[in-house]
Every structure is written in C-alpha cells, then in structure tokens.
Structures
1.
Amino acid sequence: MIQNRLTIAVLTVKLALLAIVLAVFYVNFYITNEARDRLYSSPSRVPAKEVGLVLGTSRFLSSGEPNPYFENRLDAAAELYHNGRIHTIIASGDHRHASYNEPAAMRDALVVRQVPEEAIVMDYGGLSTLDSIARAKRVFGLDDITVISQKFHNERALYIASQYEIRAIGYNAEGVPRLWGIRTVLREYFARVKAILDLHVLDTAPYLDT
C-alpha cells in the first residue's frame, strides 16, 4: 500500500515536471513566432520611425571586461541613427543606485559613436524590459517604436509591446557566440515565462516614476 502511494507520488511529480518543461518550451515558441515578421537585421530594410528604444544592460561583465551585449546594442542603435531609420534614441536602463547608471553609460557610448547628445533621451526607470516598454507608452507617450537589442530579447520585448498596444518592430543587434552566451539563452526561457505571468496572471505594475 505504501509502495503504491510512493509510486503514484513519484509519477505525479514526474508528470508535473514534464508539464512545466512543456509549458516553458511552448511559451518560448509562442513568443518567438509572434515576433517573427517584425524583426530586422539589416538597416536598409528597417522601416523608418522617429524613435528607437535601446534596452539596457551593464556596460561591463563581472570580470571587468566590456559586455559584448552592451557594445553590440549601441553599435546597432548608432547604425540605425546614421542610416536615418530613427531620429531619437531612448536609452532605457537601470539607475537604482548612484554607482550604477545604465542610461548614462549608453549615452556616452552613443556619443562616442557620433550620435549627437541632443538626439539621445535617457530613461532612468527601465529597471526591466517590462518597465522600459511600459514607460515608452505611459511616460513618453509613444505608440510606434523600434526596439533595439539582441534577437532573443527583442522577441520578448515585442510581445510585451503588443500587450501595451504599441506598434513596435525590433532591430537585432549582433549576438554573441552561442556557447559563450548559453547562460543568457537559458535565462531567457524563464524570462519569457515570467513575462507571461506578469502580463496575464500577476498583472505586475510597471515602474512609472519619472
């Protein structure tokens, strides 16, 4: 009797784990598919829009080396600007502490790339992708933007944008070698599940303080 109960319990746990794994993969597929026709990798093909939204990340890795995700995003933003595909760049990132300022770092990197400072708007409240997208709509009053990040990140950002009724496209910055960025790729699977929960289950309120 006890053995039967243990067998049922183990089977139940296995089925629950299988269901979770399948749900994670389904969410990943769904969000990728939803963004499929709104992603661009060549500036000549990108529809011109007034504003590009660069999603923040740290400038340096924990080792102190430059973060290639950061460098590639800013390269992509400058590329769009110099090709006339965007005219204003919102640098949206985390500035919760005086010692950590993603938007300022993005601005400095853009200026080095010959983007005039007057074309750059800093958004200090982009603590997460959800916050950056929601603030584009509710703080900056935008409903038509080009999101600039790596492809995997753009896919999630575009899904969030659609929930805020923003007409968004994504411009894909160059990624990093897959093996080098495997942790980021794995983390993205769960970030997508969190996005679904935030938007449709938890009704997570974005950070809208200015």
2.
Amino acid sequence: MKPVAVFRHFPIEGPGYLATFLDAHAIPWRLVRIDAGEVLPASIGQFSGLVFMGGPMSVNDDLPWISPALALIRQALASDIPVLGHCLGGQLMAKALGGVVSRSPVKEFGWGEVSVADNPVAHEWFGDLSEFESFHWHGETFTLPAAATRLLSSRYCENQAFALGKHLAMQCHVEMTAEMVTAWCEAGSGETNAGSGPPVQSAEAMQQDLAKRVATLNQVAERLYVRWAAGLV
C-alpha cells in the first residue's frame, strides 16, 4: 500500500492518536511538516490517502501552502483518494469543496459534548453512538459544501463534522492524546486563562480526569479511523 500523507501545520498539532492507529494497523504513513518548510507534493499519485491536521492559522490567511493544499484536496476527491481533516484540516476541506470558512460567533476551547446527527450517513460513521465528549480548540467555523452531509453538531457550533462519500472533515479534535492536551494548555494559556467554563475552559478544567477522557475519545477516533481507512486505495 502507498503511504498516507499526514500534513502537519504546527509543531504541537501532530497526528496524535491517528499515528497510533496507523501503526497498529500496519498502514504506512509519511509526515509532511508544513510548519518546518516542507513543500506539499504537486500530485497525490504517491499516496493512498491524505490527512490534514490542525493549526492556529486561518485557511483565509495569505500563506503560500494553502492554495496547493486546496488543490491537493480537489485532486484527491477527483481521484477517489480518501481525505481526512481535523479542525484546520476540516476547514481546508470545506473551503476546497466550495464551503465558506469564517469567524465563529463563539470560540470553543476544551472539552464539550457533540451530538451525532440522526441520518443514515452519520450512522455509517458512528454506529449507534448519539453523543460523546470531544476536544475543541477553534475560533472559526465552516459551512457545509454541496452534497456533504452533516455528522456532528455542538451547542456552540452547528457544523462539527461532515462526510462526502469516503471523505471526512471534522471541526473538533478526536486525535488528542494526554500529552497534546497538556502541550496545548501550556502554549495557549493566553487564550484559556480567561476561561471559567464552557465554551472556553481553563487549562485546569481541560486537564481534569484527562487520562479517562482521552481514553474514551480514543475509542471514538478508532471507530472513525477504521471507517475512513477502509477507503484507502
């Protein structure tokens, strides 16, 4: 199998549990460090799938790698190569497919419940799961591209995930590990210090019962990654 390309846009926003999943299932993968100046490939031909991770930037920023990333996503869909997006990655997918990414009326930072939509596509991805606690770290949101199906919503963000065939875009972060949560709390203290509850939690609140919360979220991620990986070419 050709490797899965995992695009990292910020040093502490790596693949997290996705790397654990890929290794456990003997799926080869290659980390493309956009944050370290690595250039995006011009073609998707060498990869079995594309994964875009998160980052503090906006897909509307004038950054040299954004247009090539959007082109890669469109190329992958045209070639039926599965694409997976986490937060910024989901926003890249939305924009590449005709959706609009804009500032969210409410920021979400920390743990919060998301509801699974009651439609056949959502049931294909989540089974009988109706809600779960995910991790959030975003100040922007996306609209649904044409033909996409909403999978998840939260109290503060209507579009938390969508699917389009074998392609999955998420606003929330299901890839988290305990180490990532801790690192984000340290790096993002300026944004979370003012938080005293939903939708912006304090670093202390984010790290309460951390091992248990992450383990539960890993189970959700496992389900999604299994479904997504089934489409790898």
3.
Amino acid sequence: MIELAGNLIIRDGKILLLYREDEGHWEVPGGKVEESESPTEAAVREAKEEIGTEVELEKPFYSGEFQKDGEMYLWHGYIANTDDEPAIQEETFQKMEWVDPVELDDMSIAPNLDMVLPALRKIK
C-alpha cells in the first residue's frame, strides 16, 4: 500500500487545487509519505516542494483508502493554513486555482478527493 499525505488549504471558502495534465485531474498539494517521516511531516514537506509555502496543519480532515490503476493507497488529508502566497514550484503541475467547493462536481478531481466529495462541498 502506498501512503500519501495532502493539504486542504482553504482561503475565503475556496480550496487550493493543482492541475496535473499527465493524470488529467485536479488535486491538492501533497504526495508520498517517505519511509523516515510521518504523514504530517510529509504534508508539510510536500506543500513546500509543490507550492513553495510553509503550511500549518490545523486538523486532520480524513484518512482513508482508495484504489487507482490496481494499486491501493492510504491518503491522509489535513486542513492547512498558510500566510504565504502559493505558487507552482514543480513542472508536474500546469495550473493552480482557488476553487469553490460547489464547482468540484464539474471538475475532474483526483480519486482521493472524489471519495470525500460530500465533505468537500461543505467546506466554508
């Protein structure tokens, strides 16, 4: 099983999403948990690597399993804050947008976000 950690960064009721053309979906900043770190450490590290910001994890949002391309994943999502202005740091991502949760129904989102879509719609 592959363990992942991600950040739900919310500002003015909108969620920060990054678009991956190679995957054809929008996702939150995050990635694989390395062997020597906890999921919370991975979430903080990935935000710095992907959007160049220091984040403060406010609270856990969800931890759960999903399957993609025959692989099993365990995703830990955290509500996070940043005072910095995020900017794409990696070529993996082509776009970054602040998205109102009601717009998620019309977007192609990552499987980990799709499994928590009802909860995401309630974010304010």
4.
Amino acid sequence: MEQKILIVDDEAHIRMLIEQTLEELEDEEVTFLTADNGEDALEIISSEKPQLVFLDVMMPKMNGMEVCRRVKKELVLDDVYIVLLTAKGQEVDRLKGQEVGADVYMTKPFDPESILQKARTVLGLV
C-alpha cells in the first residue's frame, strides 16, 4: 500500500532537508508531497489524505496551527498524523500545538534522525 508524507515549509531548503532525511523511505513505497504555504497544504491534505504531515508553524497565507486545527477539528481527519515544526520552543507554543490537535511538536533545528524515526514509526515501517 502506497503511503504519503506531506512536507510543508515556506523555506525551500528546509523542505529539501526533510525530504533528503526521509529519502530512504522511497524504497518502502512512500511518496513525498510538498507545499510552501498553509492554504496549499490544506488542499493537499484534503485531497491526498497523507498519513504523515511535517508542518511548519510560521508560513504565509495560513499558519501551521490553523492548518492543523482545520484538519483535526473541522475535517476530522484523525488518521492524518501531524508533526508541527517550529523555531518557537516555549511551553505556551507546545500547549497551543496540543490544543489544535498536533500529534507531535518538534523545534527547529531538528535532529534528522528523530524525523526519520518518527516517520518510520507513524508509517509502521519499524
């Protein structure tokens, strides 16, 4: 069964870094989708239903918190696993991430190994 990972960040180099980190999953029939703003991300999540989303918080058009809230609370896509990525590591930000339904909250700079491990776990490739 094909699985999909959506990588959402307004900075191209970060999207590329995450994709390179997860590259070895391509052998496991994992497809990568990308978006550079929140609106596009929401459209892709609605239409493609990726199993896993790495979602930047601070983005143009719609921020990651709002995308996450809509996916979890309005579209009720509980089977879409959302990892919020942000430079803000304060506790208040983490709590806000939990409130909008994020499954995991990771701060940048992130450890590539933990991103890969998270993806393997979520997709059941451990």
